[in-house]
Amino acid sequence: MYVGRFVVVGPGIGAYRVSSRSFPNRQVVERDGTLTVAPTSDAPPTDNPYVSYNCLRTVEQSGESLAVVGNGSHVDPIAEKVGMGYPARDALALSLLALDFEKDDYDTPRVAGVVETHGATIATVRRDALVVREVAEPTLVATYEADDPEPFDLGATDAATAAREVYDHAYEHAVCAAGVTVGETVETSLVNE
Fold this sequence. Notes:
Residues 2-181 form the Inosine monophosphate cyclohydrolase-like domain. By secondary structure, the protein is an alpha+beta fold.
């Protein structure tokens, strides 16, 4: 099954995977602690604004580290709001509502999550809804087919395994992935193949 790009978050752990039929020549790169989806060197030129974006940012809020994961440019305003002290729910809702779903041929939903040491919040904005939920177990939301948050059996306990697990998941057209754990320290990892 093809679900497109997806986010999985739970308390202390998160992951993001790019799945694509249209733009398979992408990779996750690390830039000053931020993980960014970017075209590979062999990718054809494109002016599509949805191809390159920060997919994982870490922020500090009142001395605690948090991570924001998502499928587009909304990751930055969410991270900025969390860093300013907004609760995860409010940062997700305000940013997703402001940017709305992607204005492409498919009205692609935006998906995102905030990972805290002892909690997580997941969200999506689609043509027909804005959904924001606090979750106590790993939960997935995807751009297609699974566009309402649902439990996800994530067995990983570290960032590298989380990235690898979502990359290797049976959903079709894996391109690249990122993983994060949040605790006393923040650990990130990426998978490109």
